[in-house]
Fold this sequence. Notes:
- With 183 residues, the protein is mainly α.
- Helix content is 69%, strand content 0%.
- It has seven helices and no strands.
- Keywords: Membrane, Transmembrane, Transmembrane helix.
Amino acid sequence: MHHYDIMLTRAINHLAGTSSLLDMFLVDLTKAGVPIMVLAVALQWWRKDDRPGVRHTLISSGMAFLLGLAINQAILIFIHRIRPYDAGLTHLLIAPNPDFSFPSDHATASMAIAVTFLLRGSRRWGGAFLMVACIICFSRVYVGTHYLTDVLGGAVTASLAAFLVTGLYRKGTRLDRRLTEIF
Length: 183
């Protein structure tokens, strides 16, 4: 399995440098993709249609986002995987990152949003967020900062967090009504 991870990581990262336009797009996306997704979520707070339902989904996605990142921090206590560029496997297109590689926080953050929207029944927004999240995951390997299994691990922690939040944070509860009525 480790052999395939290295092989696929190298294959994706080897694409870097073949197109300056693609390099520029994926470097920009790897840096700004998650903040743009968070902004796209936050701006929906003021939507007029199904306000309680939309707000419930927005709060759920924020909870899954934070829970996923918290799970990642717990994993980092036990797994100290060096970055692929530190192992001499990839060519880095962005500034180096001092922390460990597994799991990818970018993958976790973006996938937590996408999976939560899909689980809450928002197919249009969930599908759009999923497409962006997949490109963000690809960009993390492309720019040389993660192994492929790092982003897959991030997607798993994101999905776990989204399923937990969906199961525990129910629509219409007292807490939900209080949170969705803010502003």
